[in-house]
Amino acid sequence: MKESKVDVILHPVRMRIIQHLIHQELTAQQLKELLPDIPQASLYRNIKKLTDSEVIYVVNEIPVRGTVEKVYSIHKPGLEISPEELNKLSKEEHMGLFIQFLANLMGEYERYLNKGNIDLAADGVGYRQNSLYLSDEEFREFVYDLRRLFQKAAEKKPKNGRKRRTFATIFIPNDH
């Protein structure tokens, strides 16, 4: 049975690969340097899975000493999960995906904590939960503004002085 695009994307290792390919093109070697805790065989296997599933694409091939080094990038339409595909999932499948999402976040946080010499305040680490009382129109406007701000920050390329930070959102409607 073919694995759904949702399952392909939300795998913890593949999610980390995708996160590094947002707004940049990288070779497998560069990904290996960015993800040193992932064994090389596992990294290559997951890159292949993402490529075969058309979540990431080979955007260039560079000849290197008699071989070809592939350059990978995400392709935004390939990363999209259609509302129709999401609506077809069962309650159990949604819970499974949500648990994978939370596990990915927990993994990121654990890797941060394991670095040792950390300073949560100086590093800007935080997690919060707030309730917002918004009409449907106000909520759409809020999400639009948030996406616009996020896109502006996400367009910044890696360079000296910039730290990679994980930002996650979860919106859950509540009837009370």
CATH superfamily of the domain at 5-73: Winged helix-like DNA-binding domain superfamily/Winged helix DNA-binding domain
Number of strands: 3
* Shape verdict: globular
Biggest β-sheet description: 3 strands, antiparallel
Kindly estimate the percentage of residues that lie in beta strands according to DSSP: 5-15%
- Helix and strand element order: HHEHHEEHHHHH
Detailed description of the structure:
The protein is globular, with a radius of gyration of 18 Å. With 176 residues, the chain is mainly α. Strand 2 and strand 3 form a beta hairpin. It has a domain of 69 residues: Arc Repressor Mutant, subunit A, CATH 1.10.10.10. Keywords: DNA-binding. This is Helix-turn-helix domain-containing protein. Pfam families: HTH_20. InterPro entries: ArsR-like_HTH, WH-like_DNA-bd_sf, WH_DNA-bd_sf.
Please name the defining characteristics of this protein.
176 residues, 9 helices
Itemize the secondary structure elements and their pairings:
Layout: H1 5-9, H2 12-21, E1 26-27, H3 28-34, H4 40-52, E2 56-64, E3 67-74, H5 76-79, H6 83-87, H7 91-113, H8 120-123, H9 136-154
Antiparallel strand pairs: 1-3, 2-3
GO molecular function: DNA binding
Pfam families: HTH_20
Keywords: DNA-binding
